[in-house]
Write a structure and sequence with these properties.
This is LacI family DNA-binding transcriptional regulator. The protein is built from 13 helices and twelve strands. With about 325 residues, it is α/β, with parallel strands linked by helices.
C-alpha cells in the first residue's frame, strides 16, 4: 500500500514547527524566521509535498502568480546589467516561496492595453514594475484595481494618488553628485553630462545631481540609458565643446558608448577626458580602461521589491513602504 499524500500537517511535523508556520511558508509570508523557513522547505522537498492549489485557490481566490512588468524592449532586458541584477534579486527572493513569476515586456500602446486587461485578480496576485515612464498608464491602472503593486523607482511626480504607492529606488541624486564632485576635485573644469530619459525619475535625479556640482549651464545631452544613445550623445557633446575634459554618463552602457566615440576621436581616457558611469556593472571592470562608476545594488533592490510585495500579499502593513538604497562611487582607471 502506498503512503498517503503528504499534507501540510505532515510537513509541519517533519519540520518541527506548527501548522501555522508551515502554512505561512507555503503561502509566501515574510513573517517566518529564516531557520523555520529552511526547515519547512527541506520537509517539503523530502516529502514531495504539493499543495492542493486548486482547492485552496477556490477558498483564498489566490492565483499564486506574480507579474513582473518591464517597460523596455526585450533586447535591453537580456543585455543590460541593471535589468539582470533586478531580476536576479526578485528571482532569489521568490525562490523562497511557492509563487510563480510571470514576465511581460511592454512598449507600445497596444501592449500596455493588453497587459492592463491581464493584470487583474483573476490572473495574478500582485505586480512588480520596472522602468516606468511618465506617460505609462499601467501603474495607475493597477493601483486603481486594488492589486498589490511595488515599483522599481519612485513615481516621477508626487501627488495624493502616488503617496500610498510602494517603491524601491537607488539614491540617484547623491550618486550623481558624488561622481561629478570627484571629477571637479580632480581639476576637471569642462564637465559634460550624458543624461538619462527625462520622463523617468532616475534620469531626472541623476541630471539634478550633476547640475548640483557642475551648474545649470553645464553641457548635457539626453540618452535613453543604452550604449548607442551614449555614443550619439558623446558625438554631439564633442561637436558642442571639443575641449571638454570630463563626462558623467547616467548609465554604464551610455558610458561605454561615450568611451568608444572618444577613442575614435583620438581622445585619451582619462588623460584627455575622464569618464564616469552609473550602475557599477561587472562589465565596467573589464572595459579599457576600467570604468569608474556609481554602484547601485540592483540585486538588493529586487529583493526589497519582493519583500514589500510579499508583505502586501500576506496582509501585513509595511513599516516603510518607500525604500531608498545607498549608492557609492567605485574608482577605476577611467577617472
Amino acid at each position: 500500500m502506498t503512503d498517503p499524500r503528504p499534507t501540510i500537517e505532515t510537513v509541519a511535523a517533519r519540520a518541527g514547527v506548527g501548522r501555522g508556520t508551515a502554512s505561512r511558508v507555503v503561502n509566501g509570508s515574510s513573517q517566518v524566521s529564516p531557520a523555520a523557513r529552511a526547515a519547512v522547505m527541506k520537509a517539503i522537498e523530502e516529502l514531495g509535498y504539493v499543495p492542493n492549489r486548486a482547492a485552496r485557490n477556490l477558498v483564498t481566490r489566490r492565483t499564486d502568480c506574480v507579474a513582473l512588468v518591464i517597460s523596455e524592449p526585450g533586447e535591453r532586458l537580456f543585455t543590460e546589467p541593471y535589468f539582470a541584477g533586478i531580476v536576479r534579486g526578485i528571482s532569489s527572493a521568490m525562490a523562497q516561496t511557492q509563487l510563480q513569476l510571470w514576465l511581460s515586456m511592454v512598449q507600445s500602446t497596444a501592449e500596455r492595453e493588453r497587459a492592463g486587461r491581464f493584470l487583474t485578480r483573476e490572473h495574478v496576485d500582485g505586480v512588480l514594475m520596472l522602468s516606468q515612464h511618465a506617460n505609462d498608464p499601467l501603474p495607475a491602472r493597477v493601483q486603481a484595481s486594488g492589486l498589490p503593486l511595488v515599483l522599481c523607482g519612485r513615481p516621477l511626480k508626487e501627488s495624493p494618488e502616488t503617496e500610498s504607492l510602494q517603491y524601491v529606488d537607488a539614491d540617484n541624486f547623491t550618486g550623481a553628485r558624488l561622481a561629478v564632485q570627484h571629477l571637479a576635485d580632480q581639476g576637471r573644469s569642462r564637465i559634460a553630462c550624458i543624461a538619462g530619459p527625462q520622463d523617468m525619475s532616475a534620469g531626472l535625479a541623476r541630471l539634478q545631481g550633476f547640475r548640483e556640482v557642475a551648474g545649470d549651464d553645464a553641457l548635457a545631452e539626453v540618452g535613453d540609458f543604452s550604449e548607442e544613445s551614449g555614443a550619439k550623445a558623446m558625438a554631439a557633446l564633442l561637436d558642442r565643446d571639443p575641449a571638454l575634459d570630463a563626462v558623467f554618463a547616467a548609465s554604464d552602457p551610455m558610458a561605454f558608448g561615450a568611451m568608444r566615440v572618444l577613442k575614435a576621436a583620438g581622445r585619451r581616457i582619462p588623460e584627455d577626458v575622464a569618464v564616469i558611469g552609473f550602475d557599477g556593472s561587472p562589465a565596467g571592470r573589464n572595459s579599457d580602461p576600467p570604468l569608474t562608476s556609481v554602484f547601485q545594488p540592483t540585486e538588493e533592490m529586487g529583493r526589497e521589491m519582493t519583500r514589500l510585495l510579499l508583505a502586501q500579499l500576506a496582509g501585513e502593513k509595511a513599516a516603510q513602504g518607500q525604500v531608498i538604497v545607498d549608492t557609492r562611487l567605485e574608482l577605476r582607471g577611467s577617472a
